[in-house]
Amino acid sequence: MTRWWVLVLAASLLPGGCREAGTGQGSSGAAVSRIDEQVGPIRAARLSVTPPAGTAADAFSVHLRVVLSAGAEAVEPEGESGWGQAIELPAEWRLIGEGFASSTEAVADGTVVVVVADAAPLAGSYEVGPATVVARDEAGVETTLSLPPVAVEVRSVLPEGHTGAWDPEQGELGAPVRLPWWWIAGGVLVLGAVIASAAVAVRVLMKRASQPKRVLPHTVAIEELRALEATFAIAQDWSVPIARLSEIARAYVEHRYDIHAPERTTEEFLREASSTGHIGEDDREQLGAFLNRCDLVKFARHQAQGDEVRSAAGDIRAFVDRSATERVALLVDRRGRIVGREERGA
Predict the structure, then answer these.
(1) pLDDT of 317 over the 70 cut
(2) Cis peptide before 130, with omega less than 30 degrees from 0?
(3) For residue 147, what are the contacts with CB-CB under 8 A and spacing of at least 6?
(4) Helical H runs in 78-215?
(5) In whole angstroms, what is the distance from residue 63 CA to residue 101 CA?
(6) Is the CB of residue 100 less than 8 Å from the CB of residue 84?
């Protein structure tokens, strides 16, 4: 049996032997390389590229078809690319999709193996191949067959003779656009107007951002009271919250009634507040009692309790609500600092 296979292989390598190879363009419009005589278990093999000529914008299909005798099988090359190693593609050809795909179909007296892939080449003249086929018969003997490469012509999508450079001598695709001078002048004027408008808009926005914002004194006081009341649940030393209440009450009276007396005593402060004529007698007495208690705590002559501080916070909130007005506003810059006071007529 082994001697018979040796004779077959030797005969296939001799001139005029039983293997017949050919290349050219097939009747189906493809560049074809084929061997139609049997070599070992390989009955026929065909390498084709469709179309045989086209442009760099076309997709080219590469087909390898191998017909095997009954009981034989094709040996897929080892490696990640699999059948991609059986067909030698030019470096300028890029595979489309997942690369080479193979299929096997049983026929009456053997097996047909088809390997196919689509590629997108660059412009140029190429040889696709050779293609190497390895088959194994029922006895485990392997036979290798090589198909010659096929010639394929890929044309550029640019006009003939065009290099792709920006050269007016090479035709419309390479010629620069020539605009009339008044178009250029008009474009410059429009661009200047856009830049000037943008500069004015930026200046207006910056001016608005730099202008102080109006904030009502009672709004500031209520927000500060809410922040302070949120700390009552974890307070241990109540002298700190009651001192902060005193600061909030003094600041509100100063902002609301335009009194600037940060260094005055409680009595002097209350006397100045009463002189405005806007604070009623009841509010003055209640505010005075509260500020006096704060002074006692401050000088360690009284120990503040939680219920006392909560009650005082409620009294301050009620006083702020009664005396709130829309006519008086604080001017606050974008950093949150009070930079002025504004009072409008009734």
Answers:
(1) yes
(2) yes
(3) 21, 33, 34, 35, 45, 46, 47, 64, 129, 130, 131, 132, 133
(4) 181-210
(5) 10
(6) yes
Task: Fill in the DSSP letter of residue 180.
Answer: -
Residue pLDDT, tens place only, 227-280: 988 988 888 888 888 888 888 988 888 888 887 756 677 777 777 777 766 677
The answer to whether the beta carbons of residues 150 and 158 sit under 8 Å apart is no
Q: Tell me how far apart the alpha carbons of residues 252 and 259 are, in angstroms, rounded to a whole number.
A: 10
The identity of residue 145, as a single letter, is: L
Reduce the DSSP state of residue 259 to 3 states and report it.
coil
What CA–CA distance (Å, rounded) separates 142 from 121?
34
Q: Do the Cβ atoms of 332 and 209 come closer than 8 Å? A: no
pLDDT in tens, 182-233: 888 888 999 999 999 998 888 887 777 667 888 888 898 899 999 988 988 8
Nearest-5° angle of CA 14, CA 17, CA 20?
A: 115
Phi, psi of 145 (to 5 degrees): -130, 135
Q: Is 90 helix (H, G, I), strand (E, B) or coil?
A: coil
Q: How far apart are the C-alpha atoms of 41 and 295, rounded to whole Å? A: 112
The Cα–Cα gap between 37 and 93 comes to 31
Other beta carbons within 10 angstroms of residue 141's beta carbon come to 16
Alpha helix positions (H), the chain: 2-13, 181-210, 217-229, 239-257, 266-275, 281-298, 306-323
Cα–Cα dist 320/245, whole Å = 12
Residue in 246, 225, 248, 231 with CA at minimum distance from that of residue 306 = 231
Per DSSP bridges, beta strands 31-35 and 42-50 are antiparallel
Question: For the purposes of burial, counting CB atoms within 10 Å of the CB of 119, is it exposed (0-12), middle (13-18) or buried (19 or more)?
Answer: buried
Q: Give φ, ψ of 134 to 5 degrees.
A: -120, 130
Q: Are strands 142-147 and 131-136 parallel, antiparallel or unpaired?
A: antiparallel
| pTM confidence score | 0.41
